[in-house]
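WARN retry 2 of 3 for item q-0093 after timeout on previous attempt; input resubmitted unchanged.
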Amino acid sequence: MSETPQLRNGGRILVDALARNGADTVYCVPGESYLAVLDALHDAHGIRTITTRHEGAASNMADAYGKLTGRPGICFVTRGPGATHASNGVHTASEDSTPMILFIGQVERGFIGRGAFQEVDYRQMFGGIAKWVTQIDSIERIPEIIAKAYSVAMSGRPGPVVIALPEDVLFDSAEVNDALPVRIAQAAPEPQAMDALRTLLAQAERPLVIVGGTGWNADACAALKRFVHANRLPVAASFRRQDLFDNRDPHYAGQLGLGVSPKLAQRARDADLLIVIGSRLAETTSSGYTVFESPVPKQTMIHVHPDAEELGRVYQTRLPINASLSAFALALDGVAPIAAAEQQRWHAWTETARADYVAHSTPERSSPEIKGVDLAQVVAHLNEVLPDDAVISNGAGNYTVWVHRFYRYRSLATELAPTNGAMGYGFPAAIAAKLRNPERQVVCFAGDGCFMMYPQELATAVQFGAPLIVILVNNNMLGTIRMHQEREYPGRVSATQFVNPDFIAMARAFNVHAELVERTEDFPAAFERAQRAGVAALIELRTDPRQITPANRLSA
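OK item q-0093 returned
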């Protein structure tokens, strides 16, 4: 604790608490409700303030920061409308298990309950989606509450914390002791659990490892790889967690999520042992809880999760293990490999799983009946030219099926994609990624509907110097909804067609490098020019609206 506290206002005490906990970036849309915080950030030389053009973008950037670093992304917004806009990112962080802290300016304490200007009860508003929602009603408690916020956001299953800041608390002054930087306790697996895991694996004939969740680091991924190689096991990734295991590895079998390979889904059903590490096996990963049945899966299941409350919540498993993913992965080094003779039972199983993945993730030659750009060939080209640490981001829409199917992720923290299916996520996330790691290449995929959620953030990318590349997939419609519409109400198109702006002219108005590509063969040169541009770049791809998924035509 500080021995000689100084007189500081609430804004300064709060910013000092963030700095003590290692915050180096905040994302915000300024508001008069937290002016004292903005003033303190002026002198906080270790914290960079990124001003966005929409609170939803700011909260999505904070979520992306949390995904990339494992530390809470920090977001500040003003009361009322600012908070409602920012709720988008809070929901993403909740479903994606991302550490995040959202600060919201609040009306003065004396005005609460009177229906004051932009007043909202944030405990009620965010109570169902945040891990913890609170309001700081005493300046003396600011260090305590910030410390707890960090602890809650990062402990167990990580997630978002929401803190309301009454304006008069921020302007008030006091001599307050600072709290120590937060340290997070990590649950470790018991030796008996690791012995039981080995016993179940030794009895298996069709084992499958499924990885997911958050809380991984490079050492944990490396330990998982050693365990997988030592036992020659097939590995599948849960929805939008493909960067946890090198997709080029001969043991990788694909992703369980939207656009899942039918053969992989069947393989997961046929497995007699599932080693589930970090994933909650939620609706999308489980194909609507059909691949893994609830409450008792037909497969023998080992479920590893850092949050004890997740174990047994949906699935009753043979062996639940409460452990942080890093601690569990390192504990795998102590598990003796299954004897080579016994591993023979599943060698063909693993090899076939890999062969099925390679076949599914290798694009076929372009069909002459399809007009415009072949998105599969675009993704295949990026596989060839992007470095291993390149970050790929996306939002929601059918265009993402091409990305997840054909792009082969190679290393941790290279996939920024919302498991809650939030449109508009990819572009703000890409900006956050480029600002966080300027030396890495960052490519954002966005559909025309997805991109138009936050197109104004082109200004943010230019203002703060984020030379990322946006690949805008334009088919002039909301493809996912149109697909469902044609299935349920064929020929009755309603509300899913777009009249889009001139994206190239719009991007250039923001001083962004922009090009239109209408033929597949023109993409490589356009992408190379975008890489050399030195500024944010946008490449619009005109695609055939009939090509609704890699395998299906809209008419089908």
